[in-house]
Specification:
Elements lengths: L5 E7 L6 H11 L5 E7 L6 H11 L4 E5 L5 H11 L4 E4 L10 H11 L3 E5 L2 H12 L8 H9 L10 E4 H7 L11 H12 L3 E7 L22 H15 L7 H23 L4 H11 L13 H12 L7
Parallel strand pairs: 1-2, 1-4, 2-3, 5-7
Antiparallel strand pairs: 4-6, 5-6
Length: 319
């Protein structure tokens, strides 16, 4: 069978009533693209698998459903990566659905031979992306610049709105960290950018179809599992250091500005959930995350203030 141009990877769990709508939405977004659809179910206890199979048949799509057993999202995504056969990959998540982006992403990927393509969240990004898309003569930013801007919170990236070349992922042996329930998406995307030979921002504004997205009540407390985001951030730092010659001072920015901010954000979350500051302090010490809370001249004034209060008087610290 001729390989598809695009593989659409969709992790699912207990979305019996929503899966048909999600697959139909994905099919609408790819109606002008030679696409395959890989749905990986994470141990649903309802009729999600059956409804997904029926919808694929009803729409006459090229695709299949994999029953992955009780598993987490990164494990399901790795299974999908292994089964994908398209030249490019994209991800659909029931809680974040973007419309009208894939044709533009594919065009930019082909024109500029990009390993990673993403869209625009702001008008400023859109205008810059338009300039770069006019001609290949105009020098586009290095992929590491996008990582730097994400670390400095000057840019937003979302795994639900990217296109990645499959052979690039295979060559670099990039996959999702299955031990991490939080931070796996950011780690995968930032490492992809760090190792990419070329990355491009497509001149298309990202628009979410919130009326079609999965809506459910507040999830249960996450507890210290949220600190998986710190482990993910440390993996990104390792990747940046391994290619530091082309990244300049990026490792220092990650170490002194981004990682301490991630740690404090996790602290804020567990404190809001009602875990006492003594328990959190002990956990940070035991896990070794406390030593990551080091600010320098690169750190923002707000981050410096938060770290100082947390270290000096944690009983009055407020998330």
């Amino acid at each position: 069978m001729q390989p598809s141009e695009l593989s659409v990877l969709i992790p699912t769990q207990n979305v019996e009533k929503e899966i048909s709508r999600i697959i139909s939405f994905a099919a609408e977004q790819t109606k002008e693209i030679d696409a395959e659809y890989i749905i990986v179910d994470m141990g649903s206890t309802d009729k999600t698998v059956l409804e997904a199979v029926l919808e694929i048949k009803r729409l006459n799509l090229r695709g299949f459903v994999i029953q992955n057993g009780v598993s987490n999202v990164p494990t399901a995504l790795n299974t999908a990566l292994q089964k994908a056969g398209g030249k490019y990959l994209t991800f659909f998540f029931a809680r974040r659905l973007y419309s009208g982006i894939l044709l533009s992403f594919l065009d930019i990927a082909e024109r500029f031979e990009a390993d990673v393509v993403f869209g625009c969240f702001t008008k400023e990004e859109y205008r810059a992306a338009e300039r770069y898309a006019i001609s290949s003569v105009i020098r586009r930013p290095e992929p590491s610049r996008y990582v730097r801007e994400e670390a400095l919170r000057e840019r937003k990236l979302d795994l639900a709105a990217v296109l990645i070349r499959r052979e690039f992922l295979m060559a670099k042996q990039l996959s999702f960290d299955e031990s991490c329930s939080f931070g796996y998406a950011e780690e995968f995307l930032l490492e992809s950018l760090l190792y990419a030979g070329s990355a491009a921002q497509a001149p298309v504004m990202l628009h979410r179809e919130k009326n079609l997205e999965l809506r459910r009540g507040k999830s249960s407390a996450v507890g210290t599992k949220i600190f998986g985001r710190v482990e993910a951030a440390l993996h990104v730092l390792d990747a940046a250091q391994s290619v530091s010659e082309s990244n300049g001072d990026l490792p220092q920015i990650l170490e002194k500005r981004w990682i301490p901010s991630v740690v404090m954000n996790c602290v804020d979350i567990v404190l809001r959930e009602g875990i006492g500051y003594r328990v959190v302090k002990d956990y940070l010490y035991t896990a070794g995350y406390g030593k990551l809370l080091v600010a320098d001249r690169r750190s923002s004034a707000e981050l410096k203030r938060k770290i100082f209060i947390w270290k000096a008087t944690p009983w009055i610290y407020r998330p």
